[in-house]
Amino acid sequence: MIANRRILTDDMVARIEALASRYPTKQALTLPALHIVHDELRHVPLEAVVEIAKLLDLAPAEVQDTLTFYQFFYQTKPHGKVRAFVCRSISCALRGGEQVLDHLCKKAGIKPGETTPDGTITIEPAECLGACDFAPCMLAGNDLHKDLTREKADAFLDSVGRQNG
Amino acid sequence: MKPSDTFQPVLLEAAGIQDGFSIKSYRSRGGYAPLEKLLVEKKPAEVVDLVKSSGLRGRGGAGFMTGLKWTFLPKDHPGPIYLCVNADESEPGTFNNRILMEEDPHQVLEGIIISAYATRASTAYIYLRYEYPKSWDALQKAIDEAYEAGLLGDNIQGSGFSLDIYLHRGAAAYICGEETGLIESLEGKRAWPRIKPPFPAIEGVFRKPTVVNNIETMACVAQIARRGIEWFRSIGIPADPDNPRDPGSYGPKLYCLSGHVEKPGCYEAPLGITARELINRFGGGVWKGRRVKAVIPGGISMGLMTEDELDTPLDFTGPGTVGCLGLGTAAVVVIDDTVSIVDFLHNSCRFFAHESCGQCTPCREGTNWSLRMLERIRAGKGRLRDLDLLAEIGDTMGMMPGSTICGLADGAAWPIKNSITKFRDEFENYIKQTNPTGYMETDPVPALPIVTTH
Amino acid sequence: MPTVLVDGQEVEIDADERLNCIEVARRAGVEIPHYCWHPGLSVVASCRMCLIQAGTRNAETGDVSMVPKLVPGCQTPAKDGTVIVTNSEVVRQSRARVEEALLIDHPIDCPICDKAGECLLQDYHFEHGQSERRADIHPFSSRRRDVGPTVTLFVDRCIMCTRCVRFTREVSGTAELMVSARGAKEEIDTFPGFPLDNKLSGNVVDLCPVGALGDKDFLYQQRVWFLKKTENVCGGCATGCSIVTEHNQDTVYRLKPRENQHVNKWWMCDEGRYGWHHLHDATRIVEVSHRNHTHWNTVEWTSALGQLTKDLHDAGRLAVAVSPMLTIEEAWMLCAVARAIDPDAYLAMGHVPSTDHDESFPGGFTIRREKSPNRIGIEMILSMFNALTENSTVPEWKEFLEQIRTEAVQSAWVTAGYPTPETSWCDEETAAVFDNMNCLVVQDLFRSPLSKRATWCLPASGFAERHGTWVNCGHRAQTFEQAIRPPAGVWPEGRVFWSLLGRQGLYDPESIRETIAKNSVGFAALSGDMPSLGVDLRLQQVTGT
User: Fold this and answer.
1) DSSP classification of residue C154
2) CATH number for the domain running over A82-159
3) Is C350 helix (H, G, I), strand (E, B) or coil?
4) Hey, is the C-beta of A61 within 8 angstroms of any chain C C-beta?
5) Final residue of a domain: which of C52, C87, C122?
6) What is the C-alpha separation between B20 and C257, in angstroms, rounded?
7) What is the distance in angstroms between the Cα of C190 and the nearest Cα belonging to chain A?
8) How confident is the model over C62-77, as pLDDT tens digits?
9) Are the beta carbons of B401 and C184 separated by less than 8 Å?
10) What is the number of domains present in chain C?
């Protein structure tokens, strides 16, 4: 059932192994390894979990246990090329965050938590992003979008559309 | 104690300074010299005493005496000892750690190095939440600069003290900000907090003695080393002489102000400023000329203060006097009078149900049950009885009654408790108006299909 | 002696005991309800059902100071001066709330759940729960998930005690089970392609306090309140796990381990646990048959035994293979019968089935390579009869075969009783050694190439059908009771040999055990009542008690 081709590239394995000297146990590499794979593939397929487990001398269930706890890592298919977290915690909700999320999702034609069919963008509700001074806000990749308005949200979607053809 | 008028920011001293995040800027402001001096002049145990005598209390939410926590480490342990720096700042309304890390990472680093020296830690992990990519870059750059300058690594400045600092990235789970949840996550497991005892100082990460400290606490350590104990103790609210168990609320604090104010932001003031002063002097007052309905004193876990409670000093003891859980992260969130308390409580319950780690029964089921009830109430099918059930959940869930392993449950309970105690009339009116035919029902009612994703 | 106060009762504990409040309270006859704690697993204190009030009593002043909040009984050590309160209103309410919380999202499908009747959720609800439901109603039935070849999971019945996950990580060391997701959506699961498939897998069903995990072997077979329980010992290997045979109307439905810290702690392996089906296999030998050339006749027992004895008497020198599946009582009687027929009878150990090596697990459990429960016991019995080789060891199966092959003996009685209906323990080549015997008696559960050559083919009994004593690899003798009657037509070995010895009345294994104890220093400890956890024979020899 598990495919024969390897998912983890040599580069990924090298980067995981390079961190080994930082921790006294291999298990501590679990979260960094998941990030390394997820950053590149935008998901951590089941096969990759098996490979990570082998690398770390763990059972696949142990790695999967950690992976699913965070409700953060995608597994069955990749998230969009752009992953937009729209905050819905109290400070952003007080300043219209939920309405912005609804607006963004409607405009993109998806429900919160979903990815557009062309795989361009995933829009998810997030809990407090720690940018309450710029509420309502959104984190997309490494960019923090501050003081979101409907107009700014539209502009963001447009630019995502332009960048991703 | 005269607050704010004459107080000059120290933790935020880099604000507005060009390249304030660089090691050059930090040195020019007096940074790292205190560390270098300490390494020569003081033994680790003396640095512990220094921090203990300063009266510094942890800035992460619990407010435990930092120096005292360090003394719990076993003496003469062969090592390794670990310092975990909690940069998982996820308490709704809180963003002061982010600002410190982005704008003055070296201040944080100096505090970490001094703390590691004091606790004889040989490795420090900064557990940084996923949602702070800018902080990651800023910290990594600063760490690289510090290694280059010989302030990290082997035998720092010939002192015999060696320290490595590593960044460790989180994955968007609030419970990783809990001390032992962080430790479990660092070890690569699901972040289920541990039972205590054993306490982390005895058996922490990788089963070794560990201290977990907050980012802002680290910055305070750097400032204490630079400016001295007397300076630190001259700021804030001194210990109540009639209460031997009160360690006082000393030092400057970063207050995060957000929500319905004109100027949300992070403002530094001596511990003890009131919410009213914070809102009016720093925050430009309630936005749009509106009135306050309620104010969160220290992150959503702390509960709510009403308008007439806004003159409570925001130190470690003040919020407790008006029925809030405590100072928490000193994240003040203002809620104006157009907001329905039902919506507020729903937002809170949704947050905690999402973030509950699920390990212990009262929190796992209590957070879920309270969210379901709030959803049913908002859907117009609430009952007055639900308020009694919510109040009971609020009163019985948490570390304080002893029913849970960690304080997330207390944080989930307090907004419920405060909302229902302080705004019961509004709840009752809402329920009666939205469910005129069913609000009196006391028997169980059919559950709603689950609609809110979390 | 350190003293602990439990609900006002004083309980003394030993100075070197490390007990938690649950264990100490038990000694006062107080049962603190709990789900997630288990003495064989790490303490997680996550179910919160065992919350109690605890404090300390000042030894000098007698003042009691209680911790101001509830504490878990499982993680609170009981020391000298500890005060435990389990019956106050605040403790009662806490339990009622935990129970209520567990039932909010539970299917409560007792009518279709195997665990009904032995379910802690049911029991605690009855004893500690609230009488009325307060949470919203949403009837639903549990999803079912296959987690491995032996165990099935009813996902929504799970209360997240994590005993099963901890077992696979700490005791079996195989880590197949995990928790997935977070919060109220957590579920137990396995990783696809890596099912729960280790030799101790069945133990997670014992551990599960509710009906979430079930034995596929037992699912829907019998309601537990019909089951009678008999303390027994597993006959699968030389570990000799203490078990309980659960049966009804002479049918075994399942086996469960008994706690025995000297032998198996709390566990048993799957081979033993599910290894009872041979008892009810339709191909069992259930009558005495006599062969005349190629012609077989069924013979009634009493006349068969008389005829058999005469045949053996007339046949020349006798050799007896004493199976390591027999109890020491049966073995002693067999040897006595053999020597009565032929004072020069050659006595040897029967075939001892073995695999390559022992299998040890991190939690401290070992499955032995020797797949019989009583080799040591048989050795000791054979020594009593001076059945020794030149090296002063007991002759084994290969020496026995040599006797046959060299025609040093002309008749043989082979006892077997190995629980393997599919593959015979004796292959054609070995059986051919017996081709030219004057009289061959084979006493076995299933037909084999050897039984084909028998003059007299007698049935044998299985582990649950006999009362007697086995000695395991650690020299621990355990005496167990008969749980079920063998199939009609089968006389258990005990009854056969008792009759051949000329004893009257029903077979009395205790009297044989007494005889053995009186006539052997090694077995001296077997005199009198036998403790249910057995007795270490070597210890008794050393201490002379």
Assistant:
1) E
2) 3.40.30.10
3) coil
4) yes
5) C87
6) 68
7) 6
8) 999 999 999 999 999 9
9) no
10) 3
Tell if the CB–CB gap between A72 and B339 is shorter than 8 Å. no
C373 and C343 assigned to the same domain: yes
Q: What is the pTM of this model?
A: 0.96
Average pLDDT value for residue range B50-78: 96
B129: closest CA of chain C, how far (Å): 18
> So what's the pLDDT on residue C392?
87
Give the one of C181, C192, C194 whose C-beta lies nearest to A59's C-beta: C194
Q: For residue B8, what is the DSSP state?
A: P
Question: Rounded mean pLDDT of B30-50?
Answer: 97
Query: What is the residue-averaged pLDDT of chain C?
Result: 96
Q: Residue B242: left if φ>0, alpha if ψ -120 to 50, beta else—which one? A: alpha
Sign of torsion over alpha carbons B218, B219, B222, B223: negative
pLDDT of residue A165: 52
Residues C255 and C315 in one domain: no
Instruction: Label residue A117 exposed, middle or buried (CB < 10 Å: 0-12, 13-18, 19+).
Output: exposed
State whether B354 and C185 contact (CB < 8 Å): no
The answer to whether position C526 is within a domain reads no
Which residues of chain A, if any, have pLDDT below 70?
Answer: 1-4, 164-165
Interval C229-242 mean pLDDT: 97
pLDDT tops 60 at residue C427? yes
Residues C262 and C309 in one domain: no
Does residue C81 share a domain with residue C101? no
Class of domain A2-69: mainly alpha
- The domain of C270 spans 96-279
Delimit the domains of chain B by residue range: 3-234, 249-336, 341-434
Looking at the predicted structure, is the pLDDT value of residue B454 above 60? no
CATH architecture of B249-336: Roll (3.10)
- Whole-angstrom distance, CA of residue C493 vs CA of residue C479: 16
With an 8 Å Cβ cutoff, is A2 touching chain C? yes
Q: What is the mean pLDDT of residues C286-300?
A: 95
Measured between beta carbons, which residues in chain A are less than 8 angstroms from residue C176? 59, 61
Stretch (H or E) spanning C5: strand C3-6
Q: Is the Cβ–Cβ distance between A59 and C194 less than 8 Å?
A: yes
Question: Where are the extended beta strands (E) located within B274-382?
Answer: 292-296, 305-306, 331-336
Q: Which chains touch B (3 or more CB pairs under 8 A)?
A: A, C
Beta carbons of C341 and C306 less than 8 angstroms apart: no
The pLDDT-based confidence of B7 (bands split at 50, 70, 90) is confident
CATH hierarchy code of domain B3-234: 3.40.50.11540
Indicate yes or no: CB of C178 within 8 angstroms of CB of A61.
yes
Q: What is the pLDDT of residue C403?
A: 95
Chain C residue whose CA is closest to A68: C181
Contact C178/A46, CB-based, under 8 Å? no
What whole-number distance in Å separates Cα of residue C176 and Cα of residue B98? 39
Decide if A132 touches B, using CB distance below 8 A: yes
Domain assignment present for residue C262? The answer is yes
Q: What residues of chain C have any CB closer than 8 angstroms to a CB in chain A? A: 169, 174-182, 189-194
Cβ contacts of A62 on chain C, cutoff 8 Å: 169, 175, 178
pLDDT of residue C175: 98
CATH of domain B341-434: 1.20.1440.230
Residues C340, C203 share a domain: no
* Mutate: best of A30, A70, A132, A148, partner B, most B CBs <10 A: A132
- Give the model's pLDDT for residue C539: 81
Interface of B with A in 270-299 (CB under 8 A): 296
Whether this model's ipTM surpasses 0.90 comes out as yes
The domain segmentation of chain A, as residue ranges, is: 2-69, 82-159
pLDDT exceeds cutoff 60 at C544: no
On chain A, the residues whose CB falls within 8 A of the CB of B87 are none
* Distance of alpha carbon B360 from alpha carbon B193, whole angstroms: 10
Are residue C36 and residue C82 in the same domain, yes or no? yes
Residue C364 CA: distances (Å) to CA of A57, B364, B411, C171, C273: 21, 33, 41, 7, 18
pLDDT at site B453: 44
* Amino acid B411: pLDDT: 98
